[in-house]
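Example protein
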Amino acid sequence: MGQPGLHAIQDRRVMGGTDKRASDAWDIYRLLTDLDIGVTSAELRSALPSLRRVVAAATADILVERAGRTRGWLRTGDAEMASVGSEDLVAAGTDLLERLKVRG
């Protein structure tokens, strides 16, 4: 698995007919739903508040507020990626935001 990034996904472009954003979105979703056993959240909670705010803003944008757009990227991937619905993305993003507990 590559280095998924909430910011990198926003800057990607379609290259050679392949939309890398699909695999980025899939990596992010899987990290939050299947692979996160609390480690990611614990590390982020111990990070500087400024980093938590950046992660929270990107999470809100990519997984919550623009879940439909992110869902569109996933639909360009394989059948498993395409099976993720907007509501799944919103749930994963909302859960991460809650675990981050970003204030201020």
Summary: The beta strands are 14-15, 18-19.
